Amino acid sequence: MISGLRPEKRMRTRHLTILLTDIKGFTSRTASGSRSDMVALLRKHKELVLPALEKFRGTLVKTIGDAFLVTFDSPTDAVLCGVEIQEILKEHNSEKTGRERIEIRIAINSGEVAVAEDGDIFGDAVNITARLESIAEPGEVFFTEAVYLAMNKREVPSSEIGYRQFKGIPERIKVFRVLRETPVGSQGVAPARDDQAAEAPGETPAAARAPAQRAGFWRRTAALLLDALLFAMIIGTLGIRACGPAASVSSEESKDLPTAMELENIRINKEGIEISGRDGGGVTIKKHGAAVLGPDGRVWRSKKHVNVGAGNDRSRVPVAMLLWALYGGLLVWRFGATPGKKIMGIKVVDNETGGRVGADKAFLRAFFSLASLFLMLGYIWAAWQKEGRTWHDIIAGTRAIKI
């Protein structure tokens, strides 16, 4: 041995299941809370979580601030432990509000790890667990395909989320979550149905894989009409109007008319079309002819040779379209649905996780909904698409489900 160099710690490798927990919003709570509040929070966190770890024979490797890194010999025990922790916290939070609530994310992965003499663990399996924890939903238990393939599937109902690409991990990882809507252990009681038995080995049963039904074409169309009506009432009440192009009016009988008119309003009824300008002028077009009203109130009438054309001022922005996109994006991001969708029992969720839609996806979905609205082609596409996803759902990575 070269003098001055310390011998490296001997490592041994083991195949373990790794569970990682993390408190939601802990960093922001640390920044805004006192030290005594954080100490009390962490103490309560340990009091609630540690008994479950011991019950399922978990080995606490280390705590990292608000996070617990735990290993299990059994993948099934690890997942059952995660479920019990979430149930304990759910009961704790039922009587708490605000900062007293403790919501955690749980991620589980299995693989070969290097175990140091002090019990710490290293390796790709640990890194994947940490990446998975970063996308896990509070109150949920997420786990990888490695865990799913090794655990007792009849003890824990699960749902496939899909493949995710994690930073620093070359291959895509298939992710699952525990179906907490179904009581743990219920799959071991009910006999397997014929349609479940016919599925390929290792696949999630159809009932567990798709717990939520897609929202149908007519339901979504009704929700769209309700939202359009509400949106029109809102902008009408606030006095907001879309900026549009200028209109030019010419007539052989009225050479002195202004060559351009700023549009104020357009009305279409059974008698014809009425166009009013901001300067007091206007145009009416009916089956018997047209009438043009100048800014001074003078009316020219002509049954023939009256042409009405639209200008093309590209510098103007269609404000109503922009507001419509902001309306849909903000409400889906904050509440998971617009008022029309709420009334029709529809919720928008992330297509991969089945959870809440992030701000980026919500606004991307809202802006591209304008493309789906063109002749309703995006919605008609969804009626024939297997998962019932519109163009804007596919682009944003979302889907609409019945609730």
In words, what does this structure look like?
- With 403 residues, the chain is of the alpha+beta class.
- It has 13 helices and 17 strands.
- The strands form 4 sheets. Strands 1, 2, 3, 4, 5, 6, 7 and 8 form an 8-stranded mixed beta sheet that branches.
Cα gyration radius (Å): 31 Å
Low-pLDDT parts are 1-8, 186-211, 242-261, 300-317
**Under the CATH scheme, which architecture of the largest domain would be assigned?**
2-Layer Sandwich
Number of domains: 3
The proportion of residues in beta strands is 25-35%
Q: DSSP helix count?
A: 13
Distance between the termini: 68 Å
The overall pLDDT average reads 76
CATH superfamily membership of the largest domain, which one?
Nucleotide cyclase, GGDEF domain
Structure summary:
By secondary structure, the protein is an alpha+beta fold.
List keywords for this structure.
alpha+beta; 403 residues; 13 helices; 8-stranded mixed beta sheet; Alpha-Beta Plaits
Topology of helices and strands:
Blueprint: E1 12-23, H1 26-32, H2 35-55, E2 59-64, E3 67-72, H3 75-93, E4 104-115, E5 121-122, H4 124-135, E6 141-144, H5 145-150, E7 158-164, E8 173-178, H6 194-197, H7 206-209, H8 217-238, E9 247-251, E10 263-269, E11 272-277, E12 282-286, E13 289-293, E14 299-302, E15 306-310, H9 319-335, H10 339-343, E16 346-350, H11 359-372, H12 377-384, H13 391-396, E17 398-402
Helix pairs in contact: 2-3, 9-11
